[in-house]
Amino acid sequence: MEWVHLEVVGWLVSAFGPYSGRLKLEEAVSPGTSLDQLLRFLARKYPGFKKAAFQPDGSYNGLMNVVVNDRLLSTPSEQESPLQDGDTIVLVPAYAGG
């Protein structure tokens, strides 16, 4: 079993329960688990996160940015890369406006 560090910021924190501020979690993952698999696991574990991050058809809704080890992921294919023991994943709300 490997462990990854998960940080959630902004309004996404409330999708994980009655929290505020920055939420820090550790999740156990099997070797070879992809980021996509982790996010879908979190959606099953935290129904509020599922509503915040996914469309009803299971696709991502674009309201969240994902940072892995201080690197912003820019393409969906990057979410298929396997996670490594000790990786830090930060879930950040996507911001837009003028």
Number of strands: 5
Calculate the mean pLDDT score and round it.
93
**What is the strand arrangement across the widest sheet?**
2-1-5-3-4
Tally of alpha and pi helices: 2
Structural class: alpha+beta
Secondary-structure element string: EEHHEEE
How much helix is in the residues?
Answer: 10-25%
What is the assembly state of the chains in this entry?
single chain
**Poorly predicted sequence stretches spanning 5 or more consecutive residues:** none
The gyration radius over C-alpha positions equals 13 Å
Head-to-tail CA distance between termini: 44 Å
Overview of the molecule:
The chain has a five-stranded mixed β-sheet with strand order 2-1-5-3-4, with no helix packed on it. The protein is globular and about 40 Å long. The model has no long low-confidence stretch (mean pLDDT 93). It has helices spanning 35-45, 47-53; strands at 2-8, 23-29, 64-68, 71-72, 88-93. The protein is α+β, with helices and mostly antiparallel strands. Strand 3 and strand 4 form a beta hairpin. 15% of the residues are buried. The chain has two helices and five strands; from the N terminus they run E-E-H-H-E-E-E. 18% of the residues lie in helices and 28% in strands.
Features:
alpha+beta; five-stranded mixed β-sheet; 2 helices; globular
Please render the helix and strand layout as text.
Elements: E1 2-8, E2 23-29, H1 35-45, H2 47-53, E3 64-68, E4 71-72, E5 88-93
Parallel strand pairs: 1-5
Antiparallel strand pairs: 1-2, 3-4, 3-5
